[in-house]
Amino acid sequence: MAWLFAFYRSQLGKKAIMAVTGFMLFGFVLGHMIGNLKLYQGAEKLNDYAEFLRNLGAPVFGPYEALWIARIGLLAAVGLHILMAYQLTQLNRRARPQAYAKKVPQKSTYASRTMRWGGIIIVLFIVYHLLHFTTGTVHSDFIKYDVYHNVVTGFQNPLISAFYIVANLALGFHLYHGLWSMVHSLGLSGPRVDPLREKAAVAFAVIITAANISFPVSVLTGIVTLSG
Amino acid sequence: MELDAKIPSGPIEKKWEKARFDLKLVNPANKRKFNIIVVGTGLAGASAAATLGELGYHVRAFCYQDSARRAHSIAAQGGINAAKNYQNDGDSIYRLFYDTVKGGDYRSREANVYRLAQVSVSIIDQCAAQGVPFAREYGGMLDNRSFGGAQVSRTFYARGQTGQQLLLGAYQALQRQVSAGQVTLHTRNEMLDVVTVDGRARGVITRDMSTGAIERYAADAVVLATGGYGNVFYLSTNAKGCNVTAAWRAHRRGALFANPCYTQIHPTCIPVSGDYQSKLTLMSESLRNDGRIWVPLRKDDKRAPGDIPEGERDYYLERKYPAFGNLVPRDVASRNAKDVCDDGRGVGPSGLGVYLDFADAIGRAGEDKIKERYGNLFHMYEKITGENPYQVPMKIYPAVHYTMGGLWVDYNLMTNVPGLYAIGEANFSDHGANRLGASALMQGLADGYFVLPYTIGDDLAHRMGDEKIGTDHAAFDDAEAEVRGRIDGLLSARGSRTVDDFHRQLGRMVWDHCGMARSSSGLEQALDDVQTLREEYHRDVKVLGSADTVNQSLEKAGRVADFFELAELMFRDALVRDESCGGHFRVEHQTPEGEAKRDDENFSHVSAWQFNGVGEASTEHREALDFEYVKLTQRSYK
Amino acid sequence: MNLTLYVWRQSGPDDNGRMVKYDAPGVSPDMSFLEMLDVINEGLISRDEEPITFDHDCREGICGSCGMMINGVAHGPQAGTTACQLHMRQFSDGDTIYIEPWRATAFPVIKDLMVDRGAFDRIIQAGGYVSVNTGSAPDANEIPVPKPDADAAFMAAACIGCGACVAACPNGAAQLFTSAKVSHLGHLPQGQPERLSRVANMVAQMEAEAFGSCTNHRECEAVCPKEIGVENIAQLNRDYLRAQLTGASTV
Ligand SMILES: Cc1cc2nc3c(=O)[nH]c(=O)nc-3n(C[C@H](O)[C@H](O)[C@H](O)COP(=O)(O)OP(=O)(O)OC[C@H]3O[C@@H](n4cnc5c(N)ncnc54)[C@H](O)[C@@H]3O)c2cc1C
Ligand code: HEM
Ligand code: HEM
Ligand code: SF4
Ligand code: F3S
Ligand code: FES
């Protein structure tokens, strides 16, 4: 047991935790994006999907039960992920308190240098997003269980859509470096993997971001309308 | 003074075995009771300190760099010899022994050299076990190359970084002993004097180079592994910090300094580009295995090398020495380069350079093979000169590289001062008047891993009774006072010329009169000049700052002060040795073809000098060299 | 050519330090960067100003002593090159050059451009070796090493311990240095017996020093004068996780 704490206390251990939780979160956004594609199949399909999610695991689980388990899992992941990110970030600040008068980045990317900001934007987004589509608290005309309606009316507001687009761009960058980094942090590397790794990271990041952004865009451009 | 080399009796192949049997041993429990100081963490020092630590002694190791890993040994490129005969090309311990004595122009001790050849074999085993990434063949076995005049392939190498890889092996072994608590490391800590009590070495005085603190350390034995003194020439292939201070301080305390005039000029270095030049860069001699050396036939032919047709090129080494061609020993190759340049056929802006051409080798073996062999050397050359040696031939010129002379030691590597040892390049032992390529790494590691750790026990075993001496002993007070006096002297001169300025002038003087060619008239002249210049130095040197912080000018100033005294001794030694041998070429003594001409009648001996005070002529003591096994012949590489 | 330098001057560990402007007239393109500083220093001394302190020794790019930030890049603009091997032909007339020491909590400044890299030695002490006493080795050819392994080990072993990786890393992480030694010994049969305990102990020491943690920026790889690659860091992570999960770290 003691080794577990030692592992948790070590930087490389924390990195591994980030990688694993990051991977779970990545898994969620991927699945979530795919589910949301049902938006294009019209109201019933999407609402049925939401319905299905609510009754996930039936008959073993009653309504919401399995969903809550998943939610708790996700929550824990986000929590740990953020905690590790925070701790490591503090540590790294202490390791280089004094900046250079002049420093020219060589290989680091915009994405790698903005992981923390990206992360924060994502979290802010999630909070808003939950109040918006899940609880409806900040939604001007929210109809419980009519997910399709909520999404379309929600995105008809350009400001809200703009925010979603920005947030998802941030997510894209975060995922791009995150996915690459995750593999490396877990030591999954080698002459064969390395070139693929780069491409895979780009592919996933682009696909997820593009799809997510397509939702508000297609509502604004009238491709998706209330009437379906 | 009678010089007793303590060479064991018996047939040469049995001497080392006999010595190891006769040497008294210190039992493990008692080893703990002894403190040993090792100054220097190069191949010799690091291997010695690590091994002594493994044996159970308490060791303090010192180096002036910020890490033991940076010792000058790190720069060695070409390789290390060992009589493994893995290539099955007729090598043997006896052949390595014979080649080394011959290469040294018959001015080294047979017994020492034979032992060196014997332990060379264990060195490779040890290093491989430590994880030194030697070059391998596809079958996984160790690869070898022929190196520096050897006609067998007995040189082990790790690309062009053999010294680095060997040193890292020794450094790692050393760090292992540090974590085991057996060795205490003092980095950025420069030894400035040896402390002797009743004629026995009992400690050192050092300066912590980051705080300026003068420190005292007592011990039962002091080992100097402080390298060579090539920087007396200012321009050399040595690291900038290489110095003679440790050895010279020991010399001033009574240790004899042997054969100071035996210095080696390396034939393949990058020529000087301007007067700001701070050091010279060596291009490993292994390049001569594939490169062909030539100059234009015509004097001051300013055409680009490519425009000079074969017929108008003079491959002078191949022409004069058909048997060895470009692989003649260093002194021969260097002198010939000097001759063609003096003859006005040198190449490059300064006219002090010759071509080292790889066109044929690339044509024969292909660029890839050449890149695999010398890639990082070619890369380094291009960085420094801005020229691509795959396309244009390299320009090379000889430069000071190695010093065969050093503290006199007996067969047990102990100087004439009891308890004071010298190993590696710092001693004079194994290379005679000229060192063969890839044999210095071998000697450093032989001394450190396999010789000193045994021999030091013999003397210590006799010391069990001695009462321990603390750093509060009067001898430490005196030595520290002297050290402080010297530092204050340098700081208070407040003259008008920088240390480097003086050092450059001294270097030029030594190069002109005690470099590739030496003459009695020149040496007489130099003896006067150097004394005048030394006095001027102490009057007029300008060292800013204080002694109680980092002060790099002060560090240099102290080293250069010692170089001045050493230079004087070199001139004297070169003058007295009225013959030519190996790296010591007296123009008065040459064969009609301009080869070094030895005088075995009168000079088959080691000159070991005793210090009599600054400006006082030193006293020469002679150790006769007799050769039972090697037949003295006039070296001929034709 | 004529250059303008901004050099970090700091009289000692307790001094705050500052950038100071110097003119460097008449610089020859054939000078090495350190020779250019030598010339500056000779000038300073003649004007009774203390010369600039910087570490250097071999001036052949192999001892790892030298190292400074040159215009925001560790060891300067030329890839795979140490400061001492950098030549002035890499710059052009009129250039302004910023020169700063390695900056990292684990590398405290001693004076001007000279820093204390002792942390690297302590990482090696923690396990960067093969435990073999002098004399106990078998014949060198008894353990064949496949050429590819020997070459891979060599590539990693080429690390000169200069500290540029730490200096360049936005997190001041020592991952590349540590991983270089781990994978040098990890690629060789001689390194296997202690492989996992080595990585665990070296990483523990690395983390005990004030280094940051790696977030895979790859700045280190870009400035490493010996072109040590980040795949070594992945190897380090892999071996470390194995050590932790198999419990080898406790030995
Ligand atoms: C460029 C170059 C290439 C070479 N290539 C080869 C080769 O291919 N093969 C070969 O066999 N040989 C080669 N040599 C020669 C060989 O490298 C050296 O002779 C050998 O490494 C010397 O090792 P050492 O341990 O005796 O001394 P060094 O490695 O010079 O170590 C000296 C040590 O003493 C310390 N020291 C010095 N003075 C003091 C002081 N006053 N106080 C405290 N510490 C001090 C230094 O810090 C250092 O740790 C080469 C030499 C050069 C210059
Ligand atoms: C406040 C919230 C967040 C912060 C501060 C944050 C920060 C970070 C940081 C600093 C890293 C390490 C980067 C690296 O090691 O190179 C990281 C990695 C990662 N993050 Fe986040 N992140 C946050 C939220 C998220 C979310 C919501 C997701 C998923 C959608 C996510 C996915 C990932 C992934 C996959 C990694 C790679 C793991 C690794 O590199 O070890 N992060 N994050
Ligand atoms: C534009 C893209 C997105 C759309 C259209 C969208 C849509 C929705 C909708 C409609 C819901 C409510 C489902 C329901 O209540 O049944 C929801 C829930 C949720 N979304 Fe999104 N989402 C998007 C992007 C994201 C992103 C990028 C994240 C995370 C980084 C995210 C995280 C969540 C979470 C955590 C929930 C709550 C799930 C639950 O009920 O537990 N969403 N999303
Ligand atoms: S890894 Fe490269 S940059 Fe880092 S210390 Fe080693 S050589 Fe220098
Ligand atoms: S730059 Fe730093 S973040 Fe990692 S990859 Fe290199 S150590
Ligand atoms: S001075 Fe040795 S690497 Fe630059």
Structural class of chain C: alpha+beta
Based on Cα principal axes, name the global outline of chain A.
Answer: globular
Q: Please, what is the oligomeric state?
A: heterotrimer
| Unreliable spans of chain A | none
- The helix tally of chain A amounts to 9
Which sheet architecture does the biggest sheet of chain C show? 5 strands, mixed
Largest sheet of chain A: none
Mean pLDDT of chain A: 93
Calculate the mean pLDDT score of chain C and round it: 96
From the alpha carbons, calculate the radius of gyration of chain A and give it in angstroms.
Answer: 20 Å
Order of secondary-structure elements of chain A:
HHHHHHHHH
Percent range for helical residues of chain C?
A: 25-40%
Share of helix of chain A, binned: over 70%
Strand content bin of chain A: under 5%
Strand order of the largest sheet of chain C: 2-1-5-3-4
How many strand elements of chain C? 7
Unreliable stretches of chain C, pLDDT < 50, 5 or more residues? none
Shape of chain C: elongated
Pattern of helices and strands of chain C: EEHEEEEEHHHHHHH
What does this structure look like?
The complex is a heterotrimer of chains A (228), B (638) and C (251). With 228 residues, chain A is an all-alpha fold. Helices cover 73% and strands 0% of the residues of chain A. Chain B has helices at 12-22, 28-31, 43-55, 93-103, 110-130, 162-179, 245-252, 316-320, 330-342, 359-365, 367-385, 440-461, 474-493, 499-514, 520-540, 552-576, 600-603, and strands spanning 35-39, 58-62, 80-81, 155-156, 183-186, 189-197, 200-208, 214-218, 221-224, 257-258, 263-269, 292-296, 313-314, 354-357, 394-403, 406-407, 420-422, 605-610, 619-624. In chain B, strands 5-2-1-9-17 form a five-stranded parallel β-sheet, with helices on both faces. Chain C is of the alpha+beta class and 251 residues long. Chain C contains eight helices and seven strands; from the N terminus they run ββαβββββααααααα. Chain C has helices at residues 33-46, 118-125, 147-157, 164-168, 175-186, 195-208, 219-223, 231-246, and strands at residues 3-9, 18-24, 69-70, 73-74, 96-100, 109-111, 114-115. Chain C has a five-stranded mixed β-sheet. Chain C has a two-stranded antiparallel sheet with strand order 6-7. Chains in contact: A-C, B-C. At the A-C interface, helix 1, helix 2, helix 4 and helix 8 of A face helix 6, helix 7 and helix 8 of C. Bound molecules: flavin-adenine dinucleotide, protoporphyrin IX containing FE (2 copies), iron/sulfur cluster, FE3-S4 cluster (F3S) and FE2/S2 (inorganic) cluster. Flavin-adenine dinucleotide binds at residues 39-45, 62-65, 71-73, 75-80, 162-163, 190-191, 225-228, 237-238, 242-243, 245-246, 282, 401-402, 424-426, 438-441, 444 of chain B.
